[in-house]
Amino acid sequence: MVRTRNRGAHASSQRAPERTTRVRGIRAADRRVGEERVSRVLPRSARVRVAAVAAAAALLAIGVAVGLGSPQPSAEPTVQAFLLEWENGQYRAAAAQTTGDPAVVAREMSDVFQQLDADDLTLGLGTISQHGDAATARFNATVNLGPGGAAWNYQGSFALRKLAAGWKVTWSPAVIVPGLRSGLRMAVLTTSPPRAALLDSAGSPLAQQSPAYEVGVQPGRLAQPEATAAGLAKLTGLDSGQVLDEIQVAPAADFLELVTLKPSAYQRMSGGLSRIPGLIIKKVQLRLSASIASAVSGSVGTETSQVLRDSGAPYRPGATVGLSGLEQAFQRTLVGTPTTEVVTEDQAGQVVSVLKRWPGAAGTPVRTTINGTIQAAANQAAGSLPESTAIVAVRPANGQVLAVADHVGHGMPALQPLDGRYQPGQAFTIVSAAALLTDGVQLNNSIPCNPVNPVGGETFTNIPRQPDLGPQPQFLTDFAHGCQTAFAGLSLRLSATSLAAAESGFGLGAPWQLPRPLTGFAGSMQSPADVAELAADSIGSGSVLVSPLQAALMAAMVASGTWHSPSVVISPADPGLAPRTRFGPQVVQNLRTLMRATVANGAGQDANVAGAAVYGQVGTAPLGGAPGKWVSWFVGFRAGVAFAAVEVTTSPASSAAGLAGQFLRGFRSDS
Question: Kindly report the CA angle at 508 between 502 and 509, in degrees rounded to 5?
Answer without folding.
Answer: 125
